[in-house]
Amino acid sequence: MRRSKLIFGCLGIMAALAASAFSQGTVPAAGTGKIGLVNINVFAAEKDGITRFRAALAALDKEFETLNNDLKTKSTKLQGLATEIQKAQQPPPAGVPATTNQANLSAKIEEAQNLEIEIKRLQEDGKRKYEGRYQVVVGPVFNDIIKAMNEYAKAKGYAVILDGAKLEESGILMGFDEKYDVTKDFITFYNARPAGSAATTKP
Fold first, then answer.
1. Residues 183, 53 contacting (CB under 8 angstroms)
2. What are the pLDDT digits (tens) for 85-110?
3. Where in the sequence is the domain holding 61, given as residue range(s)?
4. Is the residue at 96 inside a domain?
5. Average pLDDT for the chain
6. What is the pairing mode between strands 34-38 and 158-163?
7. Residue 163 lies in a domain
8. How many domains does the chain have?
């Protein structure tokens, strides 16, 4: 899928939402016994993904754009400091007197350490806020997708539809007939549906 451009990511959140939806009794009803596979990662693909899901992620990206840019700026500065420190710590060639200002070097090391702590704090705080806002902004859309998948399963005669990508990652799915991959067909099905009750919530 098209992942959020933020460093926080949302694969784990999507899995949690899916598990929550299924635990609330939204597992597809038994049909003819067919088993379908979908790749949830494709839902937010830039091309041929689920339109409303991409829009929700884009809205979430926008909310965290300032924080994301700040983290990038600080990370670039930290990389520059690390390069300066590494260069200053290298011994001079034989016969060349050392010119490193130890006080200046110590100051740069301290600055880099403080900056690293600041970046880590911002990342942790940002991740917590991002996960909360994901539940609010993207969660309703994803839950609506799960409901639509039940409708799709019943309409197409599938007993169950599983996330093939997750099964493959866990080593459970070793191989399958591609004709049972319904990802593209489901996305077409969902994009053709009228907008449901799920909506992007403003902060």
1. no
2. 998 888 766 655 555 668 888 999 99
3. 1-89+101-203
4. no
5. 80
6. parallel
7. yes
8. 1
